[in-house]
Amino acid sequence: MNIFRLCGDMLHLVSIMLLTFKLQRSKSCVGVSCRMQEMYALVFCFRYLDLFWVYISLYNSVMKIIFVTTTIQLVYMMRFKTPICQTYERTNDSFQYELYLIGPCAVMGLILCEEYTIPDILWSTSIWLESVAIIPQLVLMQSRREIENLTSDFVGCLGAYRAFYILNWIYRYFAEDYVNWIGWIGGLIQTGLYCDFFYYYAKSKWYGNKLVLPGAA
Predict the structure, then answer these.
(1) Nearest to 131 by CA among 202, 83, 193
(2) What are the CA-CA distances from residue 195 to residues 31, 87, 136, 157 (Å)?
(3) Helices and strands, number each (H, E), in the chain
C-alpha cells in the first residue's frame, strides 16, 4: 500500500459518501445518474467476486465489501426508496449502457484477459466497464447544464480517485516493476473522459460559482 493508492481509495469512498449524503439530505436524486451507479454495481460485483476465496488483507476485504454494498444501496434508493425514487429523472437518464457498452466491454474482457477463467474474464470485463461507467452521468449533466454543488463534488472526487490510481501505477512501475496493461489503458480512458468536466469544475471552484456546462454546439 502506498500513499497514492490510499488517497485514491479515500477519494472513491468520499465520492460515495457525498452522494449518499445528498440523497439523504435532499430526499432527491435530481441530476444523478442511476444508470451510472448500476454500471458501477456490475463493475464491483464482477471484480470482487474473489472475496469468497481470496484474502489479501482486512483493509482490502473491508473496502471491497463497502464498495459493493454501498453502490447497490444507492441504486436501490434511486430506483425504489420513496420519496427519493419519485425524483429520479428517468427520461433524462436515458443512456442505454446495456445496449452500447456492456457487449463491447464483455468482448474486450474475453479477448484481452490473461487467463481464460471466469474470475479473470469478469475482472477484465470490469476494467473496461469502469473505464466508460461515467458516460451516463456525463450525458445527464450535459442535458441539465447547471449542476448542483454536491453532485459536481461527487463526480469530481470520482474522477480524482482514478487520477490518483494512475499515480499509484506509475509509482509501482518504478518501485516494484509492476505492469498491468489492461488496468492502465482502462484507467487512461476513464481519466480522459473526465478531462472536459474537470476543466469546467476547476473553473467553477476557482471563481466560486456553481458548475455550469456549455450547451451543445
Answers:
(1) 193
(2) 19, 29, 16, 13
(3) 9, 2
Strand partners, 146: 212
Q: What's 146's DSSP letter?
A: E
Burial of 83 (0-12, 13-18, 19+ CB in 10 A): exposed
Dihedral angle computed from the Cα positions of residues 91, 100, 191 and 19, in that order, rounded to the nearest 10 degrees: 30
Task: Tell me the CA end-to-end span of the chain in Å, nearest whole number.
Answer: 45
Q: What confidence tens digit (pLDDT) does each residue in 40-88 have?
A: 999 999 999 989 888 899 999 999 999 999 999 999 999 999 999 999 9
Which ranges in 80-180 belong to alpha helices (H)? 97-100, 102-112, 118-132, 135-144, 149-176
pLDDT of residue 215: 65
What secondary structure letter does DSSP report for 216?
A: P
Grid coordinates given for 32: 444523478
**Contact present, 201 and 212 (Cβ < 8 Å):** no
**Cα dihedral 130, 36, 25, 149 in deg (nearest 10):** 80
All cell numbers assigned to 55: 484474502
Please report which helix (H) or strand (E) contains residue 69, including its range: helix 58-79
